[in-house]
């Protein structure tokens, strides 16, 4: 932590439509993970600043909830246009502060853009229902009404996509929002926030505070916040879910993972190996949907040397450098943890097929680089299997049958995503029916659904029953009000009093 300096830009708060300088005395550096250059300083917002953001959101809700649904949709039509026009700038900022390659960064922005486009379709999503004549002269219908001030807490690994999972859908539904981006890489998020303000989101409807534990706890505890959405580690997500729920809030928490991909002997070999290398090492393995465990079934285990060859061919470099396949991990402490887990794999008896611990990245001697690393002979009980590594480390295992693979995956506590590579429709159907994981890919290694559907992680990877974006999140960000109305036949012929008093 450092004191604010005039030589390095400071990241602003957004409160009631104004980008303001925090009055905190506590700041953290935003550091380029390839060079250790300090790009900016981000404030740990004070309790008073969080309260001001929530108060602004609460005031704005009174008018925003009455804003016609078409007017809300038009703001997001404008917003998606602005994101498209500024995508390369956002991606460049993201690469500088987070480390991922420019193509990965553009993909990060684009997947968030898809949700913004979905928010612009709110008119067809936020529909209630009607049952006519449920009894004589009685109709029952439902309204999906906004719930109030909502909040989002986002992680470092997708600083564009995940904020865009949250506030566009919440705001499109008629709520107001307080966003807390990751303090490690908030600059690309703030660029997207600036574009949202430019698109016409009114003052107070979207607010941003920065911070760490104190701000997270403040969000969970604040009586005027009605719902909290979180993406991040299992440890923090469990804390957020429990604390927010005890305070009477709705909460959805997408958390850690250990995603397995099963390879059957009849799979298309070249496509499968390419997919495994990309899904295991892309974004330096720093994604909750990374395919971090490959389960070879039967004869497919013979493909291991070729998978190692593909991993070895991937280029490690600073994210903005042409041809880079993966950049650095987010911080020196993250790198140290990953290296410690690799060492534990060696000590616990896994075979280190490819050692990426000491890559030589010319021109970037201080970068947090780890090259693709691959283990075989991994077993449950080893730390590299039991813990989410969140780095470019791929574990491989071998089993005899598809039933063995399904049993192995179902015994793991996490349930974010899984996949199977096969040309057998019967095997694929057996896998999708029997696997106890929320998101399943068939010849797709990272089965994150498009925004028409909802992110549906399960078991230890998710707390809360409604996922982010898609139709499920409409239910999360609205309250269903059921109205039962009866009108008597004689009302039709009774005299009509055209003077209505509101007293």
Concise overview:
With 503 residues, the protein is α/β, with parallel strands linked by helices.
Our count of helices gives 16
Which strand-content bin applies to the residues?
Answer: 15-25%
Q: How many β strands by DSSP?
A: 22
State the helical fraction.
25-40%
Distance between the termini: 58 Å
- Radius of gyration, whole Å: 25 Å
Round the mean pLDDT to the nearest integer and report it. Answer: 95
Kindly report the spatial arrangement of strands forming the biggest sheet: 14-15-16-13-12-18-19
Organism: Azoarcus taiwanensis
Domain Aldehyde dehydrogenase: 19-483
Family: Belongs to the aldehyde dehydrogenase family.
EC number: 1.2.1.27
Molecular structure report:
The chain is α/β, with parallel strands linked by helices. Helices cover 37% and strands 21% of the residues. The chain is built from 16 helices and 22 strands. The strands form six sheets. It has a seven-stranded mixed beta sheet with strand order 14-15-16-13-12-18-19, sandwiched between helices. Strand 10 (225-231), helix 9 and strand 11 form a beta-alpha-beta unit. The longest helix is centred in the first third of the chain and has 18 residues, at 47-64. The protein is globular. It starts with 12 loop residues before the first strand and ends in a 17-residue tail after the last strand. Mean pLDDT is 95; it is low at 1-5.
